[in-house]
Amino acid sequence: MKKALVLYCSYTGNTEKVAKAINEGLKEAGMETSLLKFGEAEHIDYFDYDLVCVGAPSYSWTVPIPFNEYLKKKFNHYKSIGKVLPNSPRVGKKTLVFCTYSGPHTGIDEAIPTGLYMGQFFDHMGFDVLDKWYVLSEFIGSEEMSTQGRMGDVRGLPTEKDLNDLKEKAKKLAAENFS
Fold it and tell me: How confident is the prediction for the chain on average, in pLDDT?
């Protein structure tokens, strides 16, 4: 059975909802999954998994500082043991990046740098980045940012339908890449 890690950073619950939907879809596709917040994953070895799904909210065009520190620490560990090499040779592992965003100022353009950034950690370790999923979400704690931004009224996002669609998308990703 193929193994997947769904690793996430969430402070308001949006990214956690997305992580759980992805995890559920991968399980339904027959993968053995582990769902962990980044604070619980310090001793996890990414190379023990066929698929590592990594997600975070976009805060000022990047990941939150504590998650960034976690990613850098893990990356530096892998570099120190020779798993980050010139030319990033492929290691037969895969990554899915997911990012929640509200985009109150410039829309999805606020999230794209975050997804690209997370993906680079894994690409440098030789993982194939299968995709980057950007999930429009409510700006928790600010009605103004949730209703007057470029993305319009994002209150209540992601909806149950959005989460179910992500679950189905994860099932399809698993079937296409791990069957």
Answer: 97
